[in-house]
Specification:
The complex is a heterodimer of chains A (110) and B (120). Chain A is an all-beta fold. Chain A has no helices and 9 strands. In chain A, strands 1, 3, 4, 7, 8 and 9 form a 6-stranded mixed β-sheet that branches. In chain A, strands 2-6-5 form a 3-stranded antiparallel β-sheet, with no helix packed on it. By secondary structure, chain B is mostly beta strands. Chain B is built from no helices and 11 strands. In chain B, the strands form 2 sheets. In chain B, strands 2, 4, 5, 6, 9, 10 and 11 form a 7-stranded mixed β-sheet that branches. In chain B, 39% of the residues are buried. Classes of the chains: A mainly beta (110), B mainly beta (120).
Chain lengths: 110, 120
């Protein structure tokens, strides 16, 4: 059960859009539509921003969107804001009550 | 609102056993749901450790299965983690989280985490 692959860092200017990729395998991302994304400001509780590949929980800005193609899921943040600067983690259900996370991506808003 | 709060010793010596608890409020764990433990080593990503479920399991990450025990104290509404034979590689921020498990599956509530350092 290897970790999902994410870029270590991404950056963008306010108002721009960025996309974070999350690559897994045919045993996790490729087979289950249970990919979720978490925003983590260090010192705070992680917050789910996308679940089931592309669903947004109530209260999460529609600037956050998710998608999946094959073994790779993606998180897009449009209209970047300073408050979006955080660590972002993808996660996939991997069957038999097991889960696998990504290595995390640090988003810097320039 | 569901609230989770982890607590632990902070510092554990190599080869000893790490014990953590997670106090849950706003929901009775005896009513169900799946409850997970997740950790983040310094400079690393998140790692799912295992899941406690009232009616089955626990379910463990295969890499830790021989060292990890998850349990719960229903009257106290508290989850517990025990990890034996720890090494410096077990130094991490440890989280507990609730899993929404049904037609949708994701971690909907998290604690803030408790930092554990393994050092002599």
């Amino acid at each position: 059960q290897s970790a999902l692959t994410q870029p270590a860092s991404v950056s963008g200017s306010p108002g721009q859009s960025i996309t974070i990729s999350c690559t897994g395998t045919r045993s996790d991302v490729g087979v289950f539509n249970y990919v979720s994304w978490y925003q983590h400001h260090p010192g705070e509780t992680p917050k789910v921003i996308i679940y089931d590949v592309s669903q947004r929980p109530s209260g999460v800005s529609n600037r956050f969107s998710g998608s999946k193609s094959g073994n790779t899921a993606s998180l897009t943040i449009s209209g970047l804001q300073a408050e979006d600067e955080a660590d972002y983690y993808c996660c996939s259900y991997a069957g038999t009550n097991s889960w696998v996370f990504g290595g995390g991506t640090k988003l810097t808003v320039l | 609102q569901v609230h989770l709060q982890e607590s632990g010793p902070g510092l554990v010596k190599p080869s000893e056993t790490l014990s953590l608890t997670c106090d849950v409020s706003g929901y009775s764990i005896s009513n169900g749901y799946y409850w997970a433990w997740i950790r983040q080593a310094p400079g690393k990503g998140l790692e799912w450790l295992g899941t406690f479920y009232r009616d089955g399991g626990p379910y463990y990450n295969a890499s830790l299965k021989s060292r990890l025990t998850l349990s719960a104290d229903m009257p106290k509404n508290q989850l517990s983690l025990s990890l034996n034979s720890v090494t410096t590689a077990d130094t991490a921020l440890y989280f507990c989280a609730r899993i929404w498990f049904g037609d949708s599956r994701y971690f909907d509530y998290w604690g803030q985490g408790t930092l554990v350092t393994v050092s002599s």
